[in-house]
Amino acid sequence: MAQKKTHRVRRLLTQIGLGLVILISLGLIFNEQIKDWMITSYQPKVTQASVKQGHQQPADYDFKAVKSLDFSTVAKARWNSNHLAIVGELLIPDDDVHLPIGQGVSNDTLALAAGTMRSNQQMGTGNYALAGHHMTSKTILFSPLYWKARVGQTIYLSDQHNVYEYKMTVRKFIPATDVQVVDQTKKPMITLITCDATGANRLMIRGSYVRKMAYKNAPSQVKKEFAAKFNNRYTEADE
C-alpha cells in the first residue's frame, strides 16, 4: 500500500513538473505576443473627472531612468495600471495611433501610454511634448509613427473638454542628445518623440497648432475615433 501511494505521489509530481515546463516553454515562445497583449488590453475610461484627477497626481519626469520594454517592465506596469495619471488622449487617424496620455515618463506610464515630457504641460499652449516607445510590433504605442507618419497629417489631442488640432510639419531623426526639442516655447505646437530602429537616435514629429474646439463641436468622425479602443484598430494584417 505504501509503495502504491509513493508511486502515485511521484507520478503526480512528475505531471506537475511537466506542466510547469510546458507553461514556461509556452511563455518563452509567446513572450512578445503576451507582452503586446498586456499593452493593448489597457483600455482606461478617460473622462473629465479622471483627467482632472490625473493632473493632481505626482509624476516622474526623469527620462534617463526610462527602461526598454521587456516582459517584466510591462507586467509591472499592467499590474499598477490603476494608479496611472491619465490626462487626455492622443489621436493620429492616418497613422492609426490612439493612445491615452499619462503624466510624466515613468516606466509604468510609458509601457501603456504616451507620456508628457515636462510638468504642467497644457494642450494648445506652448510646446506640448510627448514621449512614446517604439516596439517590435508596428502597431503598438508610438511604433506606427516610424512606419506611417508623414508631413501634412492631422494630430488631435483631447482633454474631454476640448479637442486640439495640429498639422504635422516636421518628421526627422535627431540625436538622442538633442533634448532641447522638448523645451517650452511661446508658439503653440506639439512634439512627439520615439526611438529610431536602432534605439540610438530619436524620431521627432512636430506639428503646428491649428485650432481648438469644444469636444461636442468636433467633427463626428473625430469623436468616433476618440471613442474607439486605444491602439487596437490596426492589426498585423494591415502591414
UniProtKB/TrEMBL annotation:
Pfam families: Sortase. The chain crosses the membrane at residues 12-30. InterPro entries: Sortase, Sortase_A, Sortase_dom-sf. Keywords: Hydrolase, Membrane, Protease, Thiol protease, Transmembrane, Transmembrane helix. GO terms for molecular function: cysteine-type peptidase activity. It comes from the Bacteria. The active site is at residues 133, 195. Coiled coil: none annotated. The keyword Heme does not apply. GO terms for biological process: proteolysis. This is Class A sortase. The lineage of its organism: Bacteria, Bacillati, Bacillota, Bacilli, Lactobacillales.
